Amino acid sequence: MAITEENPGYKWVGTRPVRPDGVEKVTGKARFGADLILPGMLHGKVVRSPHAHARIVSIDTSAAESMEGVKAVITGADFPDLAANGAHPSEIDVANNTIARDKVLYEGHVVAAVAAITREQAEAAAKAVTVTYEVLPHVLTVDEAMADDAPLLHDAMITKGVDPAPEEPSNIASKILHERGDLDQGFGEADSVVEREFTTKPVHQGYIEPHAAVADANTDGRAHIWCSSQGHFQMRAYTATVLGVSPGTLKVTAAEIGGGFGGKTVIYLEPLAVRLSQRAGRPVKLVMDRDEVFRATGPTSGTRIKVKMGVSKDGKITAAEVWMAYEAGAYAGSPVGAAGMTAIACYDIPNFVVEGYDVVCNKPRVAAYRAPGAPMAAFAVESVLDELARNIEMDPIDIRLANAAVEGTQASYGPKFPRIGFVETLEAIKEHPNYTADLGPNQGRGVAAGFWFNAGMMSSATVHINENGTATVVTGSPDIGGSRQSMALMAAEELGIPYESIKPVVADTETVGFNDVTGGSRVTLATGAAVVDACRLIVEDLRGRAAKTWDVEVDQVEWVDGQAQHVDGAQPPLSLNDLAAKSGRTGGPISANASLNSRGVGAGFSTQLCDVEVDPETGVTKVVRYLTAQDAGRAISPDYVEGQMQGGVVQGIGWALNEEYIHDTEGVMENPSFLDYRIPVASDLPMIDCAIVEVPNPAHPYGVRGVGEVGIVPPMAAVGNAIHDAVDVRMTELPMSPIKVLEALNENDG
Amino acid sequence: MKYVAPSSVEEATSLLSSSPSAQVFAGATDVVPQLRSGRTAPEVLVDLKKIKELVEVNSDGDKWTVGAATPTAYLTEDESFSHEFPGLSEAAGLIGSDQIQNRSSLGGNLCNASPAADSVPAMVVNGVRAVVAGPNGTRVLDVSEVVTGPGQTTLDDDEFIVEFEIDKMPNRSGDAYLRMTPRTEMDIAVVGAGARVTLADDGSIEQAVLALGAVAPTVVRIPDAEQALLGSTADEETLNAVAAAASAACNPIDDKRGTVEYRKQVAGVLAKRAVVIAIERAEQRNGSN
Fold first, then answer.
1. Domain end (from A532, A563, A597)
2. Which residue among A236, A291, B111, B190 is least enclosed by CB atoms within 10 Å?
3. pLDDT at position A488
4. Which of A201, A678, A745 would you mutate first to test chain B, the one with the most B CBs within 10 A?
5. What percentage of chain A exceeds 90 in pLDDT?
């Protein structure tokens, strides 16, 4: 671990204790989405479209309804028509993606759902639902979708962000544009210019736990939902929208979550489970199979990206031109906006144009995936920068140092950067022994960098002091990456009591104040700040109680090491335990709430160094050494920070080498299983070396930046650049599978 | 669906004869996914793992017998077997993952009749024989005679393999199996290549058997490569001829796991490499071990 800022004497922050959720998880007691069983509970099954694009002519549910054990069958007609009710287009899209009304837009799109006493009965009933389709021509890629005569997914889609607005509808939902300076002048000043075109495939978040939801509806219109998600308040809001009810009628309890990576910030099953439960009068459980997870949830966009960049002999980037088209899947909303903002955000570039298009096509609606949109853009930009560095014979770290954004740089997407740690991540790589480690035959080394904003948003926390002086820290942020440990560490530091005396819990939507989703790497920052605020309120309260006990002014009382101390030592100290035991006589229970809208985010940067070995006869690429340096701001829990850094890299290596959605010509996914959708296995990877850089975020009490996402931004380019270094082929298509690498090698030989 | 676990070969064959829609299984590593996906729906599932002789490994004077339902982990963990048949042991050790190998078996790997089954090319090059039980007793088939196409075998519905017979590895002989997968494990061969050679006293190749997996509907032998190797010392020119013959012997398909072009090219590469490893191993089996 590389620490660039001294730890200011923290006792708990920055330590590596046992994780609070560990015992329950390793002993199998933790309850995930599919684990809940309620008395009388029914099993649901969803009916999905076999076609990529079709009009629903009719749905006959009568045979299914009459089958043994079947208690409810629902279709799109069982949900309010949000379009007719004047809802916002984005709400209509959420509803139509949950269950189709008149058109199916991708293979796997939900058309109906059933609930029965057993899962087998539900599966049989789902097969008995007869749907008559009028199959329509489909488009699978941005190229097909943007073609002049392409069939349209949405008849009324007029491209946003174009002035004047186009008169004709298209599959282009929106255009984004960022520009500065004068491109012609910038390229005129360049001594070397490289222009390349890149394509990437849709990839899935690959969480191990499939989506699952249990709903129990009451006859008074209220319902309770248990589900695995990255934000049960968000699940409540979306579900209420689709059902056309007030959010307050729904209570959502967060299950333990077996991975999300952005893909569990959206709803799929929850409204269906509630409606089935209402129709059947019994609780209903819906659990997806893995192939449903692949066909109908996630993924992130496939893309086509063109990059042209120029540098002067001294390594200064003089101009950058980026054109990008991102698949949104069936409904508007690809992450091209974030892609446009992040693509060149690492660098201070005087002249640039970044242009992007959000394009719908007949694939599942994309969902957030770890730094949504940024990795594909970075693959393109960082590959071109690698080539430029070679052209001017400059070290790949040095060319990035020569252009690195620093405090005060006007970011390519608008604001001026506050204190950031990009340069420090570059230096951490350069100083690491991996940077000069010997390379063997057919081995090569690649560097790439990445940027992610990190989010803030809204959080709430409640802290209770128990009668023996221990504390319960309650938040509403599902723990997808170790946030419970971080909350407990910060609370221990604030209250001055041992980490083991603190129980961090994630409460349901009726037991704690509002929390936005666990996403955007925001929870340790924003929910952590709420925990710190609540702890500070507790400490104020405790000082007041000690002052009352001693009959002194409150400013005579200090809170040190978990106890109230008189400034002059005139009284024996009162520990938290003493004060808690006497709380009845000093004002009642000791408890505090804090809610906030985050006071300031801290942008994250990562620089990575990858060594590969390429088998020149089979095209197989093996990652032999990997180093990631990332600015954490402050690593509250270094174990989890390293886990996030390594996790991002590993997902990125999978994306780089093997992961892809494969569709046949009819738009049916051919590899909806982990056998043929190849996320890396442990033996595919070396230990991922971590260099935690700490350049504290001035807007957080402990200096936290988010750490969950930026680690996935550089790997594809780092791997691609290493392949180039090893065997002299420039890979411009993901995944860089053995087949593609061997093709490229054959072309070089030919 | 009914589950039965007979304790003898006779009980199993009579069960199969009396149940038209019965399916035998060993480790169930292929059957369970097929059941779950709805690709198969037998009325009776017959578990062969409770029959003693199907789950044991024995070595007598001149051959090994391996029960058809023996977990492949028994082979990879058997030092004596693995020392004698490193290629076959390594092939068995490539099936699925460590967990899968506690269930997977040579009999299941063969009778599932996947063109990509890892143990099959390694069994073919070693001349392994399958002892097949049926209502009328047993018959013996070469492993290469069992599979006729994807999912298709020459076994009748009421037959199953009891055990495999493997003649002891002669002196100055060695085997090897290599496969290409994008991942290091938990994957299915895009190309597999098995080789076995026997060397003459002067170091030239006296016998050679080469077989490829995943490049045709069934495992294919490479007679032209075998012929090219005979009498040679596997110099570069000969190895290039082996590679060319291997590529030519392929009859692959384009699918989600690989292209025709890729499979042909890499079949040549792996065949060549497998031969080199088999020769190294043969050189080390000089009679003293």
1. A597
2. A291
3. 98
4. A678
5. 98
Structural domains of chain A, count: 2
Same domain, A427 and A473: no
**Closest residue in B to A736 (Cα–Cα):** B182
Residue A380 is assigned to a structural domain of this protein: no
Range A216-228 average pLDDT: 97
Range of the domain at A581: 456-597
Q: Which residue in A662, A671, A681 is closest to B186 by CB distance?
A: A681
pLDDT tens, residue by residue, A488-537 = 999 999 999 999 999 999 999 999 999 999 999 999 999 999 999 999 99
Q: What would the DSSP string read from start to end of A475-507?
A: ES---SSSHHHHHHHHHHHHHTS-GGGEEEEE-
Query: Which among A619, A658, A671 has the least Cβ separation from residue B183?
Result: A658
pLDDT in tens, A730-747: 999 999 999 999 999 999
Together in a domain, A660 and A593? no
Contact of B179 with B93, CB cutoff 8 Å: no
Q: What is the dihedral of CA A145, A148, A152, A154, to 10 degrees?
A: 90
Q: Is residue B187 less than 8 Å (CB to CB) from chain A? A: yes
- A542/A553 same-domain check: yes
Select the CATH number that applies to the domain covering B2-167 from these four: 3.30.465.10, 2.60.40.2340, 3.40.50.300, 3.90.550.10. Answer: 3.30.465.10
Q: A682 pLDDT exceeds 90? A: yes
Buried residues in A231-241 as b, exposed as e (16+ CB within 10 A) = bbbbbbbbbbb
Amino acid identity of residue B5, one-letter, is A
| Helix, strand counts (H, E) of chain B | 11, 14
- A280 pLDDT exceeds 60? yes
The alpha carbon of residue A295 is apart from the nearest alpha carbon of chain B, in Å, by 15
SS3 content of chain A, % helix, strand, coil (to 5): 30, 25, 45
Instruction: Select from B185, B266, B272, B276 the residue whose CB has the most chain A CBs within 10 Å, as the one to mutate to test that interface.
Output: B266
CATH code of the domain in which A435 resides: 3.30.365.10
Residue A253 lies in a domain: no
pTM above 0.90, yes or no: yes
B100 touches chain A (CB under 8 A): no
Interface contact A738-B184, CB threshold 8 A: no
- Residue A40: which of A215, A301, A284 has the closest Cα? A284
- The SS3 of residue A202 is coil
Residues of A in contact with B97 (CB under 8 A): 681
For residue A247, give both structure tokens: 């959010």
A472 shares a domain with A449: no
Best CATH choice for the domain B173-284 from the list 3.40.50.300, 3.40.50.1820, 3.20.20.70, 3.30.390.50: 3.30.390.50
Domains in chain B: boundaries: 2-167, 173-284
Taking the Cβ of residue A577 and every Cβ of chain B, the question of whether any pair is shorter than 8 Å is answered with no
* DSSP reduced 3-state for A683: helix
A681 touches chain B (CB under 8 A): yes
Section B12-27 average pLDDT = 92
Band of pLDDT at residue A749, cut at 50, 70 and 90: confident
Nearest to A620 among B97, B180, B257 (CB): B180
The count of residues in chain B is 289
User: Would the pLDDT of A623 be above 90?
Assistant: yes
A636 and A531 assigned to the same domain: no
Domain edge (last residue) among A555, A580, A597: A597
In a domain, A571, yes or no: yes
ipTM comes to: 0.95
Touching B: A residues 709-748, CB under 8 Å: 737-739, 742-743, 746
Across the interface, do B257 and A683 touch by the CB < 8 Å criterion? no
The stretch A654-670 carries a mean pLDDT of 98
Tokens describing residue A206: 């690959």
Give the ranges where A320-408 is alpha helix by DSSP (H): 336-342, 374-391, 396-403
Interface probe for A, chosen from B185, B240, B262, B264 (most Cβ of A below 10 Å), is: B262
> Same domain, yes or no, for A514 and A593?
yes
Q: Residue A599: pLDDT band by 50, 70, 90 thresholds?
A: confident
pLDDT band at B289, cuts 50/70/90?
A: very low
**Cβ–Cβ below 8 Å for A678 and B188:** no
Q: What is the pLDDT of residues A381-421, one digit of tens each?
A: 999 999 999 999 999 999 999 999 999 999 999 999 999 99
